Amino acid sequence: MTTTANRNGVDVARLVQTIEAINGQPSLALFQFRSHTTWESGGRSKTTFQGFFGAGQEDTSRTQPLTLIGDEPPVLLGDNIGPNAVEAVLHALASCLSVGFIYNAAAKGIEMRALEFELEGDLDLRAFLGLSADVPPGYNGIRVRYRVDADASPEELADLCNYVQRTSPVMDIITRPVPVTVERIS
């Protein structure tokens, strides 16, 4: 790992300190992220993110909540003012892969000049609409394509891409069954 002060917009010294701190005290790696979603109208909802637990304490650095609007396109009876939920999944995956690429490239001393992702997900709405129990309601497959311009060999970039996929939290969430509980709040 290199300790160049800043590479790819990443403070490499802080990244190394974080890794060393977590290596010395593994409980610092435990995070709990939270969101609150309110239905607004039709297919539109608003999700806010503010506090979370991480690095051994409650984080209060967000003085104002971050907001995402979810909606549906007109063909699905929405107003098209935000991505729908399955589009948000594509964003989450691409965003996570991007962070993984950039942070790990910085740690390895690779200078990144450009990085782009194009994602496609195939979905059959018949299950969602209650028309078929024979098709899954979620994506049947997701394809990720990327372009990268960096000062690394094709082999180094392929190794980096493989590493990023193995360590991506969102890739793991999408590819591994994750227990989800749903309960009504009184």
H/E series, N to C?
EEHEEEEEHEEHH
Shape: globular
Rounded mean pLDDT score: 94
Strand content: 25-35%
Proportion of helical residues:
25-40%
CATH fold label of one domain: GMP Synthetase, Chain A, domain 3
The CATH architecture of one domain? 2-Layer Sandwich
Radius of gyration: 19 Å
Reading off the top of the CATH hierarchy, the class of one domain is best stated as Alpha Beta
| Main sheet: strand order | 3-4-7
Largest beta-sheet characterization: 3 strands, antiparallel
Number of helices: 4
- In angstroms, what separates the terminal alpha carbons? 51 Å
**Fourth-tier CATH superfamily name of one domain:** K homology (KH) domain
Task: Quickly give the structural class.
Answer: alpha+beta
Low-confidence stretches: none
Tally of DSSP β-strands:
9
List the helices and strands and how they pair.
Elements: E1 6-7, E2 10-11, H1 12-24, E3 36-41, E4 44-49, E5 52-54, E6 57-59, E7 66-70, H2 85-108, E8 112-123, E9 139-150, H3 154-167, H4 169-175
Antiparallel strand pairs: 1-2, 3-4, 4-7, 5-6, 8-9
